[in-house]
Amino acid sequence: MFDERYMSLALKLAHRGQFTTTPNPNVGCLIVRDGNIIGEGWHHRAGGPHAEICALLMAGSRAKGSTVYVTLEPCNHYGYTPPCCDSLIAAGVRRIVVAMQDPNPLVSGRGLRRLQNAGIDVNCGLMMQEAEKLNRGFLKRMRTGLPWIQVKLAISLDGKIAMANGESKWITSQASRSDVQRLRAQSSAILTSSSTVLVDNPSLTVRWEELNINIRHQIDRYQLRQPIRIVIDNQHRLTTKYKLFNQPNDIWLIRSQIIDFRWPEYVSQIIVSQLGKYLNLKEMMCLLGQRQVNNLLVEAGPQLTSALLKIGLVDELIIYLAPKILGHNARNMCILPDLKNLVDAYKLYFSNVYRVDKDLCLTLIPCNH
Question: What's the mean pLDDT in 153-171?
Fold first, then answer.
């Protein structure tokens, strides 16, 4: 019972890194001795001290003989920082409770064995489901090489994303658009298509002033991490006249060949092979995984959304549903092949539903997951 209580607190600490740690995982750590919390910490950002080190610094010499609660297996290798296992052993902790093993091939159980070989009592698996949910993107990338892929849509009750003339501002409420800023802030990168850029001219940035006030208390305006902006532009239609290029944060243009153009230094061209008329989306996702993209948010039109659904690359569909009906001539959320039988329908299940002002936010998982 006490173990669950303390691990729950460690998970809450880990959650505080959700806007800053990518490409590293969110990790929280709590140190307890004689029923008192003597140290706590969470991983703030890549290159900074890990959660265990933050907690040990707070505990100091009192850590000797303590119990440590950590949400992910402590590392046993040198990266930007020394191994956390060495620091825990040197501190003389008596027992370590770990929520889950780290699937990173550089760790993958070695940290747990290192601690056990040092005579520390190690328990692993407490509240593992909660720990998994906390780091879905990192864990999926480590296990499969692919990012966690969320597709976001704003639609009417009849499944439309825009009027026939392309007008779409705004189908959903300001509160829903603020919630999307949260999704962007949690994402490693945002993916769209050149067609969407040409029609909507988005910036694809996190707008701090539109974030929920509770989130603004967690992250400093001037240290806000902007997600990488990724655009599929195989027809080379983009130029620097679009708003996307007004803010000097990383932009990756996905193409089948490099075309010479005087891009700003923050723009990179990434080459992906063609599969018939279109780019190989699976290859593209593998490349994004290799570039340490954990969580990918897709904000695009029906063609890219449909392509990702058809080849089974969508992990979550996040739909902001407005209480409006736009009519049969309005633009559909998907362009999918005609289905003759109901049994052939694309099947999903609801994993979450909540109200956002006048709208609903629906989170759906494809049934093939």
Answer: 86
Note if 52 is an active site residue.
yes
Whole-angstrom distance, CA of residue 148 vs CA of residue 153: 17
Per the listing, tokens 């929920």 go with: 212
User: What's the whole-number average pLDDT of the chain?
Assistant: 90
Most confident of 87-91, 222-226, 227-231, 304-308: 227-231
Report the pLDDT value the prediction gives residue 287, as an integer from 0 to 100. Answer: 97
CA distances from 121 to 94, 117, 128, 131, 329 (A): 6, 9, 18, 21, 65
Instruction: Collect all residues with Cβ–Cβ distance below 8 Å to 14 and sequence separation of at least 6.
Output: 26, 27, 28, 42, 43, 51, 71, 72, 131, 134
The type of residue at 165 is N
Tokens of 290: 């290799």
Per annotation, catalytic residue among 4, 40, 52, 132:
52
Residue 122, pLDDT above cutoff 90: yes
